[in-house]
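Fig. S4 source data, part A: sequence.
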Amino acid sequence: MRRFLMPAVALLLLGSATTTAHAFQTEQHEFSGVTRITGDGVSGDVTIKPTDGRQVRIELFQDVTPSENFQGEVEQSGSSVRIKERWSGRNTHGRVHWTVYLPQNGDPVQIIWDTASGDLSAEGVAVNLRFDTASGDLDLTGVILVDGSRFDTASGDITLTAMTVSDDCDFDTASGDITLEDVTLGTGCEFSTASGDIDLLNVTNPTRGKFSTASGDVRASGSRGAFDLSSASGNVRISDCELTDQGDFSSASGDVVVRFGRLPGHDLSVSSASGDVELQADDFGSNYTLVMVARKDRGRISCPMSFTTEEEFEKNGRTYMRKTVKVGSGGPEIMLSTASGSVRVRR
């Protein structure tokens, strides 16, 4: 077992300071044969970067006052490396930053990190990542996330850019925003936030991925695939997207607005409990079924096409209108429904 303690008094580099109790320090170590890295942090940020070398390199930067109140530990046991932050003293403050360099060639390393308030950023690496923080952000660029990666934060933002997310990856934040741009998703990926917004730009999702927020808005544009997008009290807006499988767009109390260049060739459900629902397409094609449902006493249905059928039905003691437009053989079914808002179809 290789064990390294990185206390304030044992340094590779010591920065200038006005007193002996305040100095910035940096240290680095290299390890061979590493397949797994675990981190137990308090407030230190983490950056993951690629290296052309064949070894894992770990660098620690610390600027803590008093410096003797912080100790960073790095320990190797077999193919695993363990990192731990030890803080002491009541009046300790400062900044700690870990940088982990992963070899570009070779199998992806698994990194499991648990911290109270540190951020995580990564670029240009392939990694299996499991990160748990109370209030830190996640910012990944040019990364390949291996199957089963997880990220959980109470109040941090999640930002993924120009990268690939493999199967069964989950991302959860209690009050942060979720932003994906130029991202390809695997099977079974889920993204959720309690009170933040969700933005999807140029996202490719071959299978039905789930994106949900309790009180924020959901926006998707220029994306392709199968999507399940929902908000409890915010709006859902979809524009210039291509559905390659079934889709489900919903809000409990917000509006849902969907705009396509061409009507999808797959079943689609667009719904709101108390908001308006709107569908617009430049080209509806020649084979589809539109089903529009709204409460008779609170909503209205407007559509530029002639209705094939019109009927009323009772549900939970309320009277609803259901109007249908069937073209060709009926094609995919596009269901547009609201409990107390209006349904609008536009060309």
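Fig. S4 source data, part B ends here. The chain has no helices and 34 strands.
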